[in-house]
Design a protein that fits this description.
Layout (H helix, E strand, L loop, with lengths): L11 H14 L15 E5 L2 E4 L4 E4 L2 H4 L8 H13 L10 H13 L6 E5 L2 H16 L3 E5 L8 H6 L15 E4 L14 H19 L4 E7 L14 H12 L2 E5 L23 E4 L11 E5 L1 H5 L16 H16 L2 H23 L3 E7 L2 E6 L20 H12 L2 E2 L1 E3 L2 E4 L7 H19 L7
Parallel strand pairs: 3-13, 5-6, 5-7, 7-8, 8-9
Antiparallel strand pairs: 1-2, 2-3, 4-10, 9-10, 11-12, 12-15, 14-15
Helix pairs in contact: 3-10, 4-10, 7-8, 11-13, 12-13
């Protein structure tokens, strides 16, 4: 893969104007407004973006793990421009060529009979509608999800989310039931091998289902590979086991591929690694690298048939927006033509995976490396033996200082990291070159010295 990043031209005055307007008028998500200092960004290209002071950053966050094809891919930009010239918008009740083609290209890559596509504006709305479909299909209300998960910030999605962002909105009456998914490094099942972790996690899930009453549960939703909560790759057999449990109890199986889909794990969908077909599949982010808001639900034939003779009670003004669909068509076609999915797999196998494992051997702050493709996480710890996290769960302020110092060191080195809790995620674009990936690894290697100073070995 090749990317070309122009040399940024400093314009501090423009940056100050952008920042002033932002601080005066923009209300930011997930933030205490008076405690944040957003970086004014002037542009981006490929694996990089830059600020108005001329500082360029290697984007090892892919923004919010969504710019899978990189910043400003020329084919996608051109497709949006062309579509805007001939049809900017059209209501979702009409049949238009670019919407049909986007749906066809997605369905071509989904497994089994997931051939009907309901378009949304993003991943959270995809989860909302998948849950609604499951509840209507089964006539049941409860939905089960893992504690280590993130499914979005809308009403049902935030209640299904496992991480602390749920707490402020958790009504306790939304029908969400949480359980522990597999995570051998921090096993809740006293497992010592992946086989034990898989077997015991499945037994725990089935027991939780039994105690909730299978006849009250509409669906089980899982991220195929858990994203924000730690890049947790499921052990062999786990997803197949969940599929079997769902089949046995008449429960709809929803796989959330919002973050893991479209090349992120080195396959079109992460489920392709496991040979499992869900009843509903949610997607967003990488489908068009976030160039225009888009998400969706891929629906099985059985569930789609529920709405052959009765209306589906859901819709969005911008469902299948022409500009969004044009960007999806161009993204999928570019990924196929340029071998981007295969490239992501290769970079993971030959550069990121081996490089991160080498880094882990050198740093007492790295407890575990896990991932695949361009989807990796380093678990940072105070002590490798006890596995005590580098910072406490949901730490903020002074308690989170070690992670804040580490992130600042990354940025000083020209790398924009994604940090969450006690982890740093290495999630560059699927188009990242070998040289760019090695550049990122070198910065991480140097910045981890800051984290090492907070370990028992460095104290």
């Amino acid at each position: 893969m090749t990317t070309h990043s122009p040399v940024p031209v400093p314009d501090p005055a423009a940056g100050e104007a952008v920042k002033s307007a932002d601080r005066a008028h923009v209300f930011h998500s997930w933030s205490a407004q008076g405690l944040i200092d957003p970086l004014p960004v002037a542009g981006g290209q490929g694996a990089y973006f830059w600020d108005y002071d001329g500082n360029r950053y290697l984007d090892f966050s892919s923004q919010l793990v969504n710019t899978n094809i990189g910043h400003q891919h020329p084919k996608v930009v051109a497709a949006i421009q062309e579509q805007a010239g001939r049809m900017c918008t059209m209501a979702p009740g009409f049949a238009i060529d670019v919407r049909s083609e986007a749906a066809r290209l997605v369905a071509e890559r989904t497994p089994g009979d997931l051939d009907k596509i309901f378009f949304t504006n993003g991943g959270a709305e995809a989860v909302e509608n998948a849950v609604r479909m499951a509840r209507l299909h089964t006539g049941r209300h409860k939905v089960m999800s893992a504690y280590r998960s993130y499914h979005g910030a809308t009403a049902a999605a935030i209640n299904l989310t496992g991480d602390p962002r749920r707490w402020a909105s958790d009504t306790g009456t939304a029908g969400a039931v949480h359980f522990w998914g597999p995570h051998l490094y921090r096993s809740h099942f006293h497992a010592e091998t992946e086989e034990q972790e898989c077997e015991r996690a499945l037994a725990h899930l089935e027991e939780t289902l039994a105690f909730e009453g299978p006849g009250t549960v509409a669906a089980i939703i899982l991220e195929t590979v858990v994203g924000t909560a730690g890049v947790l790759v499921p052990p062999p057999g786990y997803l197949a086991g969940v599929r079997e449990i769902c089949d046995r109890y008449g429960v709809v199986f929803i796989l959330d591929e919002v973050m893991a889909g479209f090349g992120r794990t080195g396959e079109w969908f992460a489920l392709d690694h496991y040979g499992v077909v869900p009843d509903l599949l949610t997607f967003a982010k990488g489908v068009n690298s976030g160039y225009v808001p888009l998400g969706g639900v891929a629906i099985s034939a059985e569930i789609a048939a529920d709405f052959d003779e009765r209306p589906y009670p859901g819709g969005l003004t911008y469902s299948g927006h022409p500009l969004a669909c044009a960007s999806a068509v161009a993204t999928i076609e570019a990924m196929a033509e340029e071998g981007i999915v295969e490239h992501a797999a290769r970079i993971g196998e030959t550069v990121l995976g081996p490089g991160l494992r080498e880094i882990a051997e050198r740093h007492p702050s790295v407890g575990e490396v896990r991932g695949m493709g361009v989807f990796w996480a380093l678990e940072l710890v105070r002590d490798k033996e006890t596995r005590e996290p580098l910072v406490p769960y949901n730490a903020s302020g002074a308690a989170n200082a070690p992670m804040a110092e580490f992130a600042a060191a990354c940025k000083r080195g020209g790398l924009w990291p994604m940090t969450n809790m006690n982890r740093v995620h290495a999630v560059p674009a699927c188009t990242v070159t070998e040289a760019e990936a090695k550049e990122g690894l070198a910065v991480l290697d140097e910045a981890l010295a800051v984290a090492d100073a907070h370990t028992t070995a460095g104290a």
